[in-house]
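Section 5.1 Outputs to date
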Amino acid sequence: LPSNPNVPINKLHHWVAAFTQLSPASQAQGSALLNSIMPNTASTSTRPNVVAASKVLFDSSKEALSSGTIDSTYNFGIHSFIQDLADAGQYCPLTLFSAENTEHLHREGHSLKRSKIHVNGVSHHLLDLSQFEGELSLDALTWQEAYQRYLTWIADIGDQMSLKRWTNHFSLLSKDEAVRKNFRAILEFDIETRQNYALR
């Protein structure tokens, strides 16, 4: 905007702030109105000297590499209760890996019910899974979100062959046309497969 000595600087700031809140059509009308009442100073004023920036603001060589997988929700990792289940040889339902339940475990894990279970003569205090919805309640989006976190967990605790197998398993299922047509069948197959071939 051209400077006008009759307009105090703080009023100009208020006007500019209000102007930016207008719709594009209203801004165009406001600009036309302003141009009609302001004297034309463009021909008499000169553009100030602009010095090219000599310092590079962004450099791609200094960027940090991003992870190729989802590894947490709000910086939460896989909760230790899930690992406790696996260590005791218990099935870890995919529902525990959803973003909502990951956050729930981390924020409220101290207040969640745990059950005493004996496995091979050893007593374990494990997360009571009845506090969570069953896997068959997963929708396609939550299932995909959860299996990405599940793969991250396998990458942390399993070997490369396990990771490759489970990555292929989920990739094939998620690319299948049946996910859109009959997600329930895909989900039931996935649950049965994970129950039969759970990591030990």
